[in-house]
Specification:
alpha+beta; globular
């Protein structure tokens, strides 16, 4: 029977939805990753010995791209090759390793050059007015960087290029970053800074997002505290839209939107839950999710990678305090956090302001939200900020 055979995606690829102006990443290999929070499994105890992220199990992960504090890579590699089963116990606190089940194939200049040699099929079929009044074609997902695999504009797809890394946040088997002292959390955010700098320096990559999934409802598959980085050869539409809106605000009002917002929130003191010399945490005025908040630098910076060493420690204090408050107010809450920094190319440094967004998973997205992209929030940000302030240590 024609059409009865189920098609199979055999490689990672990105596909373009013309109607929503959105790219979707397909990664069938991700379905094979281990899941400690599966429907037939309970959350594993902290004493679980088979965790690949614990100290002594370094041989179970790919070779690290970064270890902090820095250790002798050659000696570690020699030990692994000599005895792959040997329990190595280096004095590390944070390790960054390639994801064994990447959403994006590993980036290499050879891959990009090979794609460029292929014929590039398909052109843009519609344009959009950008903030500066010029026409651009977001869906082009530049053909110079990846081959268009289908000529028909209704079925555009590409071979993606980038990287997917895991930031292992502790050698001990803990589930929450709040279990760590602030000095250790600062090392995690130093690892973020170094890896973002690394991927920003790679030609043909456009963006990198650092994110954390805490709890099964937030998408976590392993108990051991960790975060992830995905770098891309395109700018996700939400980041591009944010960049455009911030640029438009700067053009209309002559100031950075986030800087102006922080100044106004400081005056009102209605939605601020944490404040320090260089950082402020506040619940958004029109937050989509209950108890969501953002940690924002007071000094204008478009790139997170430009953060100073002293600010790293202050940021770690803010992260520990606010996440601890969330966990105290809602002990069973899952959450995501995402570090949104400027695009590698084309970001407006005068207007883009980096931020760390925390999104608790206390409510479900239902039919109205899916059908309208308009969210119903049952908790006002003023009330959420007051509750979280009450739970600050």
């Amino acid at each position: 029977m024609v059409g009865s055979k189920e098609p199979t995606i055999v490689m990672n690829e990105t596909r373009y939805d013309w109607l929503s102006d959105r790219w979707v990443i397909f990664a069938p290999n991700r379905d094979e990753r281990p899941n400690e929070f599966g429907p037939t499994k309970k959350a594993l105890p902290k004493e679980h010995l088979a965790c690949p992220f614990c100290s002594g199990s370094e041989h179970e992960t790919p070779e690290p791209t970064l270890v902090l504090p820095e250790i002798d890579f050659d000696e570690t590699s020699m030990n692994r090759k000599a005895d792959p089963g040997k329990r190595i116990a280096p004095a590390w606190q944070v390790r960054v390793v390639p994801n064994k089940f990447p959403a994006i194939p590993r980036f290499s200049n050879e891959h990009v050059d090979g794609v460029r040699e292929m014929s590039s099929i398909g052109e843009a079929y519609h344009g959009e007015m950008s903030a500066n009044g010029t026409m651009r074609n977001r869906q082009q997902y530049p053909p110079r960087q990846s081959q268009m695999l289908a000529a028909d504009h209704l079925f555009q797809k590409h071979m993606p290029s980038g990287a997917h890394e895991v930031i292992i946040e502790s050698p001990t088997h803990i589930d929450s970053i709040t279990s760590l002292p602030a000095d250790h959390i600062a090392i995690i955010f130093e690892a973020y800074r170094r890896r973002l700098n690394h991927w920003r320096a790679q030609r043909d990559l456009k963006y990198a997002l650092i994110f954390k999934n805490y709890g099964a409802d937030a998408g976590a598959s392993l108990y051991h505290s960790h975060s992830q980085l995905i770098s891309l050869d395109f700018v996700p539409c939400d980041i591009e839209r944010t960049n455009d809106r911030m640029t438009l605000y700067h053009q209309r009002f002559g100031s950075c939107y986030i800087c102006h917002l922080v100044a106004e929130e400081d005056e009102r003191q209605e939605r601020i839950l944490y404040s320090s010399e260089n950082f402020v945490a506040m619940c958004p005025f029109a937050s989509r999710f209950p108890y969501s908040f953002s940690i924002i630098p007071r000094m204008h910076r478009s790139r997170y990678e430009e953060i100073g060493q002293g600010e790293l420690h202050e940021l770690s204090l803010a992260v520990k305090a606010t996440l601890s408050a969330l966990e105290s107010a809602h002990p069973s809450a899952a959450y995501n956090f995402v570090l949104q920094t400027s695009p590698f190319q084309g970001g407006n440094e005068e207007s883009f302001h980096w931020r760390l967004r925390v999104i608790p998973r206390l409510s479900k997205i239902a039919g109205f939200e899916w059908g309208s992209a308009c969210f119903i929030n049952t908790v006002t940000p003023e009330y959420a900020a007051r509750v979280l302030r009450d739970h600050l240590e």
